[in-house]
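Model: Ready when you are.
Researcher: Fold this.
Model:
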Amino acid sequence: MSSVKLQSLNELRGTLVRRGIPPRYVHRVTTELREHAEDLSKNGDSADTSLGELSILADEITHTYKSRTFAGRHPWLTFGLLSLPFIIVTYTVWMFVALAVPLVALAPLIEDSGLLKALLVSISNVGIMIVPSMLCTWTICRVARRAGLSWRLTSLACLPVLLIALHLVTKISFAPTAEVHGTLQVGLTMPLLGINSHDYGWSQLLQAAIPVLILAGLLAREARKSPQAVVPEVA
């Protein structure tokens, strides 16, 4: 196979990666194309003619990959409209889980232990700050990458998680009485507008740091584990 064809396949690889196709998938596709072109060369056929225009081929590969999932076929619907209800439901469900398990199910066991009460309150509050952001960010990233979104668009899809985490105020109190076992307070703080600005603090910064750290971690892991989609030279 000619060096021109090898250069063309490397250009195809770069095009697909820039479009958000995972390097592992690009490596497999370009390797198959290289092997196919080698077979055509052995049979005396023109690899350039049989493989067609690489721009058209890139469009076909991108379409095939994205068509595998609903999110790939409808990215604006998935990440523009459906992501917000998903985030709200995830936060709501986890808040009630964090309230119900330690404050209701375990309350009879720790009524006389102030230390255990304080420990459970701390764990519940930290769990509300960290776990929903982790679940939402990881899920959206996973779905976005499987849909063929680039990391730039994947980060944009996670922006609602970051905004909610940056303004959400939650607080669990644990003071079991004959009427109640505890309370859960939920609100929004918007310091730039002066709304509940007194509630803004390190917890909001921690919540907002979670999506950023997960995105950075997933990007680093993919860059480290995914093979480079380099078309090998042929003598």
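Researcher: Now this one.
Model:
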Amino acid sequence: MRQRPFRQVDVFTDQPYLGNPLAVVLDGEGLTTEAMQQFTDWTNLSEATFLLPPTPEGRVAGADYRVRIFSPGRELPFAGHPTLGSCHAWLEAGGQPHTAGRVVQECGVGLVALRQDGDRLAFAAPPLIRSGPLDEADVARIAQGLGVARSDILHHAWCDNGPNWRGVMLQSAAQVLALKPDGAILGGLDVGVVGPRSKVGVVGSSDEHGIAFEVRAFFPGSNGLSEDPVTGSLNAALAQWLIGAGLAPTHYVASQGTALGRAGRVHVAQEGSAIWVGGSTVTCVRGEVLL
């Protein structure tokens, strides 16, 4: 074991402790998968990441660094808030991208492009692994597990970009915030719920605070069903689904974490064929960790 540089970064917020925290080990070389998983479980955070040099193939393809992403109990091929938080920590620690203003991350799904978007970082949403409508049996189960009528689910789709998100749209943000999901019914499912914030007008129009949607994310945790404060992978997949289906404008802001006392803000922008998902990031803890 040895001391390794460490950051704890709050993602999708410019105010410390109102976003989604991430543990970042800036030097993951020599660590086993078991050691990475053990440390992740110990942090009691939704994710921890370990930065490594690119693989030879990744280096040839232009990767600036490689990251392994873990959540309690499992490794993830991709996740959004760890992507932004890891990039923030890498840049803050002196990382120099091959191209100014553009960073290429290598992870389980391959290469993910990031860019500096003003005072925010944004990643290009990776291709969906699975899309299209959910099975009706899944929709009925999700409605029961969320405690809503089947008719309250206006739209639904697979939002699988690594994590196996199943996305459903409810009638309003208020309905999303009132949910009290049943973990016994939803056990084993990754469920993303979205509802429009505007009380009038077309779906996707913004409220008085400039926010178009409220989002919540439920997934299996070590003690049953867990809720993620702010979820980049889900918001990326939701954006691909909602914009593609004409249910959201090409530029919007989503709020997430309200039900947990957070104030996450996810900025979505479609430019050409790419959808960029961004947010502010702030370091809350700097130091070393013994690993």
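Researcher: Key takeaway?
Model: The mean pLDDT is 95.
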